[in-house]
Design brief:
Low-confidence stretches: none
Keywords: Aminotransferase, Pyridoxal phosphate, Transferase
Distance between the termini: 28 Å
Number of strands: 15
Largest sheet: 7 strands, mixed
CATH class of the largest domain: Alpha Beta
Number of domains: 2
Family: Belongs to the class-III pyridoxal-phosphate-dependent aminotransferase family.
GO molecular function, one term: pyridoxal phosphate binding
Strand order of the largest sheet: 4-10-9-8-7-5-6
CATH superfamily of the largest domain: Type I PLP-dependent aspartate aminotransferase-like (Major domain)
Cofactor: pyridoxal 5'-phosphate
CATH architecture of the largest domain: 3-Layer(aba) Sandwich
Shape: globular
Bound molecules: pyridoxal-5'-phosphate
Radius of gyration: 21 Å
Oligomer: single chain
Protein name: Aspartate aminotransferase family protein
Mean pLDDT: 97
Helix content: 25-40%
Amino acid sequence: MKNFDSFWMPFTSNRTFRNQPRLLERAEGVYYYKPGGEKVLDLVAGLWCCNAGHGHPKIVEAIQSQAAELDYAPHFNFAHTAAFELAEQLTGVTPAGLDHVFFTNSGSESVDTALKIALAYQRERGKATKTRLIGRERGYHGVGFGGISVGGIPYNRMQFSTALIPGVDHLPHTHLPEKNAFSRGLPAEGAYLADELERLVTLHHADNIAAVIVEPVAGSAGVLVPPVGYLKRLREICDRHDILLIFDEVITGFGRLGAPFAAQEFDVVPDMITTAKALTSGTVPMGAVFVADHIYNAFMERPGSAIELFHGYTYSAHPLAVAACRATQQVYAEDGLFDRARELAPVFEDALHSLADAPGVIDVRNYGLMGAVEMAPDDGAPGARGMRVLQAAFDAGLMIRITGDTIAFSPPLTIEAAQLEGAAEKLGVVLAQV
Ligand SMILES: Cc1ncc(COP(=O)(O)O)c(C=O)c1O
């Protein structure tokens, strides 16, 4: 392998990578394999995706046979039946009342789709002034212009600052290390941070606000678990002011927290849920936006027969993705993987918190099979320690995810307790060396 210039790698220091490439050749179960055959335990489900593990035979078979039967079908004015069947199947897993699915190809597309539906819905019901969108600091909602505008990760916005969409505000993030460090599960302090939404309503008036979008557990900014009562309070304020609430469940969707969705786990039902990643266990790109009945009906009850929503993708409900998704959902159900995530959560929690006293660790947090170990940054070089740990862990046969100096974990739901405990031990050695 000599040419590292042609493939411009995403969210990567390309110039650093070529000096020390971390290459993966194949995957099976909870392991990746390097080109030389050395195994690497996958502690992030690829990139928060592969909840059913890698190479599940039923999913592989479904994709292979679909490719041979129907390679592609357009969904503008035509459709293949399996797409309708899948949509119905999926709405059996979502919270009651979220009974409609708009298919996309990624989390970013799901987010931009949900934001567009929110704006179009407000117009559709005669509230055309409700146009403002509210995101949250440290939120990650993908890389579309809508997503980076409501997102709250400074570097993801900075290079494109002149093109961010107007009329967007941000709630404060919920990370309060001075009060909540080393929390197990939901941190106790911080529900009051939801009240900032009231302040924004006072400032702009509810007549001008379309929707609020948050990740129930913020993932990419380093696994920020919501304080007890926070999400319920957001829902109440949205209800009070007739504002839509969107949960971005691109990471939390499909069992990561034990329930199918965070909405069920935290007993807070939003008006839309955005998903991708584990929808197909990462096997074929696919996203989906789950939409509440009242939103869908507002479009469908309109007189006439014009197109209701001027939006969609060539690959919405691509047959390979549909086949992968149906098989994945079947595997989740048959193998009881969401229950398994719930059962493993205490082992995962103990494994992560066993690193609390490792050198440099300043916080450990977790919920379900999602967690983080945060390290103090090197003086004047944030992120440098994180990259050293990433490399050392990879050399030791562990795949982790790094955001700044925080190690994020989201193992496949198929992982074994002993593998989690063994990984924590190995990582303890890595942290002591780096
Ligand atoms: C919460 C959330 N939303 C959106 C996205 C974007 O998804 P994608 O990379 O598939 O566009 C991600 C990706 O990590 C995510 O975590």
